[in-house]
Amino acid sequence: MRVGGLQRWTSIDFPGRLAAVVFCQGCPWRCSYCHNPELLDASAQPQIAWEEVLDFLRGRCGLLDGVVFSGGEPLLQTALPAAMQEVRALGFEVGLHTSGMYPDRLAQVLPLVDWIGLDIKAPWQRLDTVTASRGGAARVLESLLRVLLSGVAHECRTTWSPELFPLHELHDLAEELAGLGVRRWALQQCRGGSLPDPARWRAELALFAARFEDFEFRAA
Ligand code: SF4
């Protein structure tokens, strides 16, 4: 594994669990709002050796519940399934943050994962623009369907500001996700982006919340 960083403790990245976060190096997409640009270059020198991560985890058995593989895009790395197996063998639950760009690799690790945070970055027709890439929409949809069929606990999340795409398209996306069977959706305000005025935004959030069993808005 090429590891770009290790967060030794978090209570918010793996719902209901105390976890460490392994930031995986490399991502082929280039979202304008990416918070971890230093993780994008897949050829960058790892910041910490995988064996060091395992040593750290061995010392946290019984203290942490789980390990989240985040990024970057963890599924870029073909070593991920083996790394997940090593983590499970130490007794930890496994979480995965992914943008859904590798549905076949995602299917491969589904049996090894206890919870998935799946980014749905934009309505399908906007995905290439938001991610500065090509052909992602079909792959993300396939990943979403695989997650839904798998029964693995998950959350879908979308980062939004009106500068990324219009509000009515965000509603269309919410309607589509709910129609596909998504039950938990988190809407995240894009850092540096605007929002509609507060009164209107409260009304919009109520509309989103009505579509899902579980809805959360995360302000930037
Ligand atoms: S998919 Fe994630 S890691 Fe990759 S560019 Fe977009 S925000 Fe950054």
Automatic annotation (TrEMBL):
- Keyword Nucleotidyltransferase (UniProt): no
Query: What cofactor does its activity depend on?
Result: [4Fe-4S] cluster
Pfam families reported for this sequence: Radical_SAM
Record carries keyword Iron: yes
Q: Which UniProt keywords apply?
A: 4Fe-4S, Iron, Iron-sulfur, Metal-binding, S-adenosyl-L-methionine
Domain named Radical SAM core: which ranges? 13-220
InterPro entries, alphabetically? Aldolase_TIM, NrdG2, Organic_radical-activating, rSAM, rSAM_sf
Cross-referenced NCBIfam families, in alphabetical order? Answer: NrdG2
Q: Could you identify this protein by its name?
A: Anaerobic ribonucleoside-triphosphate reductase activating protein
